[in-house]
Predict the 3D structure of the following.
Amino acid sequence: MAALFRIEPVEVARRQADSASFLLHTDAGRPLTLVYRFWLVHGPDGITVVDTGLTTEEAARRGIAVEHGLKEALAPHGIGPDEVDTLILTHLHWDHACAVDALPNATVWLQRAEADFFNHPLRAHPAIDRYFGRHDVIRELLGAPRLKLVEGEAELPNGLRLVPLGGHTPGLQGVALPTEEGLAVITSDAVPFNRNYTDDLPNGILQDLGQAITSLKRLRALCPDVIYTGHDPIPRLRTGAPH
């Protein structure tokens, strides 16, 4: 029997956003509450951190109030940043990856397509680069021995499965894992809000619309029992998927 995992979403900040920014061409002008978070995955081999959330400095630069950075957010869970040995980055946007240097001992798992895109000239265009931050930290990571690049689906040594879900960014990846509720997938910003899944709406922040639609189909084909979406105030959604 496969080992079971438990997912713990950790919220670090909130703000109001325009619905159409995250639900493609839908309800423009209607505010929704956007939650910034990362995830702790508890498993038989210890804890895996998925994404890093914000840094207080980068958040302040963007007008977002954050009381605690990653280190402080881990403390109530009894986790020291030096103790984390596995970090999965779903993608390299500022609110998911810019605190990577706070976990200096972690092996970092990332899709090669995401690393390649960061180094692509197109990423530097202001319309795209606005979603990236702390470039020096990301560049250092991309040259570091602790970075493990994967191409497509991959199973980590601890049993977690990485699933490509691009579109929002070229190399966005989800994390699929067995839990007591059945198969769970941390979707990150492939499905930022629960309504993206229930109403089959791509994220409004896109690099490739066709890829985003394909990723939603790929996610449904996994038949997950529950998904953990990127920014919804309700952090988990039971899907009622057929088996």
